[in-house]
Amino acid sequence: MRIEHVAIWVTDLEQSREFFTRYFNATTGERYENPTRQFVSYFLTFPDDGARLELMAKPGLDAAKAESIGWAHLAISLGSETAVDALALRLTNEGYRVVDGPRRTGDGYYEAVVLGPDEIRIEITV
Fold first, then answer.
1. Alpha carbon 63 to chain centroid, angstroms
2. What's the pLDDT tens digit per position in 81-117?
3. Is 40 exposed, middle or buried (0-12, 13-18, 19+ CB in 10 A)?
4. Could you read off the pLDDT of 6-60 as tens digits, one per residue?
5. What are the DSSP E strand ranges found in the chain?
6. What span, in angstroms and rounded, lies between the C-alpha atoms of 74 and 58?
7. Residue 101 CB neighbour total at 10 angstroms
8. 3-state class of 21 per DSSP?
9. What pTM, to 2 d.p., does this model score?
10. CA 50 – CA 98 distance, rounded (Å)
11. What are residue 113's DSSP bridge partners?
């Protein structure tokens, strides 16, 4: 077995799609729209292992009302400490907030945590 995909709600579908394609080389599938439910989504596929992320949006989402139990972050492995450092610096220079690291954690990871669109926590790691 394997996880087929994970999905996250976003308030700006195009901004989130651009973030993951620009910084993590994800490729975008076709935009899906369900007018009856006012639902739109994209499936993004990441290079190397084919992991997929579904970005979903609909009118009326309110980040302030998001549940506090559930997903904590999305971790994306970049393959090297140098790549983590470079992307953390690039994200900072392009206006995203790196809230932790880059650093070595107590459990041995080398990582940085950045807030992406909608302040989704993205852990970039080796």
1. 16
2. 999 999 999 999 999 999 999 999 988 999 999 999 9
3. middle
4. 999 999 999 999 999 999 999 999 999 999 989 999 999 999 888 999 999 988 8
5. 6-9, 27-28, 32-34, 39-45, 52-57, 74-77, 97-104, 110-115, 121-125
6. 21
7. 19
8. helix
9. 0.87
10. 26
11. 100, 123
